[in-house]
Design a protein that fits this description.
elongated, nucleus, Translin_fam, hydrolase, cytoplasm, 229 residues, Methane Monooxygenase Hydroxylase, Chain G, domain 1, 2 domains, 9 helices, Translin
């Protein structure tokens, strides 16, 4: 084979690779749009009467995740099944965003931490990497850390809305989350930096709880939770 033929062959490989990336990019753009729509919907809980509409907003968000599942199903077909990590960077960010959104919806519904397996089910993908297109553990953890920041914001806005018990519950949840992350030996630099930000979320929520205590509102919140008069 001549040098010219060799480079012609290489160009063919490059072109095929570029075509795959372009097809992936199109689907990822659609996923990003759907994620923005879900985000706009669930962040409505921070505004005005948003706390009264939480069940309705969560239901609508669940309906949007049906679109996400369809889009991810399409994404799976755009590249060879055994080359997940070769193209992973294309959808890594949007998948982390979707994990956060799923985690936030589940928290609003039950005030619990969603498992990686349940997130994978919500997104219509696998939890086990051996089974194909899956939810990478680090993507799941990144999404959960974004949830922590959102809950810190929710704690502040809960006080503004006159809901004094919610920040106490959020504080308990975030402290449990922080304890869980402390059990991990994080090697990923990006994930480690994201985790370092969790301490600021913990501090922010602690300040909210402390302010409630100083104003005597934590007693009112505790009575409300206990159902006592």
């Amino acid at each position: 084979m001549s040098v010219s033929d060799m480079f012609i062959a290489l160009q063919g490989v490059l072109t095929a690779d570029q075509d795959i990336r372009e097809e992936i990019r199109k689907v990822v753009q659609a996923l990003e749009q759907t994620a923005r729509e879900i985000l706009t919907l669930v962040q409505g809980v921070h505004q005005g009467a948003g706390f009264q509409d939480i069940p309705k907003k969560c239901q609508k968000a669940r309906e949007h995740f049906a679109t996400v599942r369809t889009q991810l199903e399409s994404l799976k077909t755009k590249f060879p099944a055994d080359q997940y990590y070769r193209f992973h960077e294309h959808w890594r960010f949007v998948l982390q965003r979707l994990v956060f959104l799923a985690a936030f919806v589940v928290y609003l519904e039950s005030e619990t931490l969603v498992t990686r397996e349940v997130v994978a089910e919500i997104l219509g993908i696998e939890a086990d990497r051996e089974r194909g297109f899956h939810l990478d553990i680090e993507d799941y953890l990144s999404g959960v850390l974004t949830l922590a920041s959102e809950l810190a914001r929710l704690a502040v806005n809960s006080v503004t809305a006159g809901d004094y018990s919610r920040p106490l519950r959020i504080s308990t949840f975030i402290n449990e989350l922080d304890s869980g992350f402390r059990l991990l030996n994080l090697k990923n630099d990006s994930l480690r930096k994201r985790y370092d930000g969790l301490k600021y979320d913990v501090k922010k929520i602690e300040e909210v709880v402390y302010d409630l205590s100083i104003r005597g509102l934590n007693k009112e919140a505790t009575v409300g939770v206990g159902g006592e008069k």
